[in-house]
Structure to design on (164 residues):
């Protein structure tokens, strides 16, 4: 079997849970604008599948929706650099999503608190700028369910949340 065939075979073993698609994993407005490849690696696809099953599907149940609307999922290294992502960002291997909480009619802080009180097994949940418009990041790592909760204020400093 050719290397290409082998890779296709490997990808074929991965099944993102409905309704998530490879387009959801690879979409990036920054990548489109800058004509950068943002298709994930095989490892990125594996992580994306794990993330969808571990985080996104349970979030659908928590919020009573058919799909979690996302602003960002996988980011290849050039894309991650371009958007100013952390050098160790879980987005680089498909293991993190930024949630479009506006599309669900919720504040980032409101979603953050609901997820924090749930049993969803995430690695880190971050509410950026919780006192203003905010945004919400959730990531996962196979073998980790540490459920670290952070607020990151406009000064750039990460703080543990006060009540958990
Ligand atoms: Zn993020």
């Amino acid at each position: 079997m050719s290397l290409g065939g082998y890779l296709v075979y490997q990808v074929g073993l991965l099944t993102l849970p409905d309704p998530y698609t490879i387009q959801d994993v690879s979409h990036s407005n920054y990548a489109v604008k800058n004509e950068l490849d943002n298709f994930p690696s095989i490892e990125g696809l594996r992580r994306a599948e794990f993330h969808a099953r571990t985080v996104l599907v349970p979030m659908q149940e928590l919020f009573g929706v058919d799909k979690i609307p996302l602003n960002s999922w996988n980011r290849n290294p050039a894309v991650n650099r371009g958007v100013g992502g952390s050098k160790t960002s879980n987005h680089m291997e498909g293991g993190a999503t930024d949630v479009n909480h506006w599309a669900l009619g919720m504040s980032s802080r409101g979603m953050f608190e609901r997820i924090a009180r749930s049993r969803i097994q995430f690695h880190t949940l971050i509410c950026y700028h919780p006192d203003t418009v905010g945004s919400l990041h959730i990531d996962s790592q196979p073998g980790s369910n540490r459920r670290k909760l952070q607020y990151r204020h406009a000064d750039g400093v990460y703080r543990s949340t006060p009540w958990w």
About this structure: The domain at 3-160 is CATH 3.30.1380.10 (Muramoyl-pentapeptide Carboxypeptidase; domain 2).
